[in-house]
Design a protein that fits this description.
The protein has helices spanning 6-22, 64-71, 253-266, 283-288, 307-310, 330-338, and strands at 75-85, 91-104, 108-111, 121-125, 131-133, 136-140, 145-149, 171-176, 184-200, 203-211, 223-225, 231-238, 248-252, 272-273, 276-280, 297-302, 318-322, 325-326, 345-352, 355-362, 364-365. With 369 residues, the protein is of the alpha+beta class.
């Protein structure tokens, strides 16, 4: 949970986007532009990037109680303090609560970045009742992930699973500091896997897990675990609208681990960036906007001054190939760009109206702030 005002605005913004996407609504787009094709450049191919993901390979436990008993010792409650100002510009301290889980026995704890956003003090309570103040805080707002470091050792570590093995209908348990009232658990199933949500211009969150296990304020940052008691997701988003029930989202652990690894080892994440807003193309979208192709990613926005703008890309273009990788949807695009580095020159094949065109872009690092 994030503090009053900020967290609810964050939830509302992401929830609104999620509702639009899931209702089948399409974005408003200008008519496609027509310009001469760009010359074909030398293309640097996608490279394989290996990031170790620890997988416990545990066996299914007998009950939800067994799952909770296995995971609960590694789940922590997080309390934060932030200095805010009233209408008369007088400072006062506001408190909030969230969750996290221990990923290394030397005191590394995973949570959401929005849990500790703008905090002047971050305290961590372990399952055994001990309280530590965070000595270091590293966060990546782009993925809503953060790592805290406390001065402790020999801590119980949560087993990490493989979210790619999840199937719709598999049982899941969400554990966390719900409503700031202490560690509790809720059970449900995997309602959907591989969900994509547009979170901000030029940013698409991929590989989210949807669950009907109750996720409430305070659960943010806590683990979503499978029937073997392995962490497969990090609770992050809940759809909180009238008439909408049982729709919570977690960042999949396979998507999160490379970011967590960077935060632990380097304190920051540097990733390649093109600077576009994207929407997956299907037959319905192709018909609605009179597109020549029924798969790919439709550009809905080009960020000013971005590599995409310098490459001549425009809203209404449909990317079908990126760095030699075929692109069918936003998932394909994000996987392709995550395999590249800042400074790479990439070839982009796209449709603009009735023309199949090629351009290239030199990728930059994702803007901060």
């Amino acid at each position: 949970m994030k503090r009053t005002g900020g967290i609810w605005r964050w939830y509302a913004a992401v929830s609104l986007v999620a509702l639009v996407l899931m209702s089948g609504c399409a974005p408003f787009l200008p008519g496609p532009a027509t310009t001469e094709p760009a010359p074909t450049p030398e293309v640097e191919t996608n490279r394989d990037v290996y990031v170790p993901i620890p997988v416990s390979g545990g066996q299914e436990l007998r009950s939800v109680a067994d799952v909770v008993a296995k995971v609960k010792p590694s789940v922590v409650s997080i309390s934060t303090e932030i200095t805010t100002y009233d209408v008369f510009n007088r400072p006062w301290t506001q408190q909030a609560a969230g969750s996290g889980w221990i990923i290394r026995e030397d005191g590394c704890i995973v949570t959401n970045s929005h849990v500790i956003e703008d905090a002047t003090r971050v305290a961590v309570m372990l399952d055994d009742g001990r309280v530590f103040e965070a000595q270091a805080v590293y966060k990546d707002d782009w993925t809503d992930l953060a790592v805290l470091k406390i001065d402790a050792d020999g801590l119980p570590v949560a087993a990490v699973g493989d979210s790619s093995k999840l199937r719709i209908g598999d049982p899941l348990v969400a554990i966390g500091n719900s409503l700031g009232m202490g560690i509790s658990a809720t059970a449900g199933i995997a309602s959907a896997v591989g969900v994509s949500l547009a979170a901000s211009p030029g940013q698409t969150l991929l590989d989210l897990l949807q669950t009907d296990a109750a996720i409430n304020p305070g659960n943010s940052g806590g683990p979503l675990v499978n029937s073997a008691g392995e962490v497969v997701g990090i609770n992050s988003i809940k759809i909180a609208q009238i008439g909408v029930e049982g729709m919570g989202y977690a960042i999949s652990i396979n998507q999160a681990m490379p970011v967590i690894y960077d935060l632990i080892e380097h304190g920051t994440v540097v990733r390649a960036w093109l600077g576009v807003g994207l929407y997956s193309v299907n037959a319905s979208i192709a018909t609605r906007y009179d597109l020549r192709v029924d798969s790919g990613v439709l550009i809905t926005e080009v960020v000013e001054g971005s590599p995409a703008e310098r490459a001549g890309l425009e809203p209404g273009d449909v990317i079908v190939e990126f760095a030699t990788a075929g692109i069918r949807n936003t998932h394909d695009f994000t996987r392709a760009i995550h395999g590249l580095q800042v400074g790479n020159d990439v070839g982009i094949v796209f449709w603009r109206g009735d023309e199949r065109m090629t351009t290239f872009a030199r990728l930059e690092s994702t803007p901060t702030g």
